[in-house]
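Researcher: Re-running this chain for the archive, since the previous output was lost when a drive failed. Same request as before.
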Amino acid sequence: MECIFCKIIEGAIPAKLIYDHNGVIAIEDINPQAPTHLLIVPKKHFENAGEIADSDSETLAEMFKVAKELAKSHSLSGYRTIFNTGADAGQSVFHAHLHLMGGRAFGWPPG
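Model: Regenerated structure tokens:
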């Protein structure tokens, strides 16, 4: 498989794991858009968040629980979570991942 996240999970590509438990890992984004920008990635390959919701809602819930834990451990007073689903939404790696961003004020609407 050519999926970069699958290769990180397998250990074929080194990455600094921020979190690794049960079916989820978290790593730092290589192109951070905020002082804290982490990626929460299911170990099982799903193309996007909709696919997780359809087949493994427990993993989806776990990803948001991990986001909350990481936000607390990084002392974030507020944070944003984002799933990009599909190329038009900015998804560039087609292995679902939840962006956790914080450490600065965010505007609305995003994008």
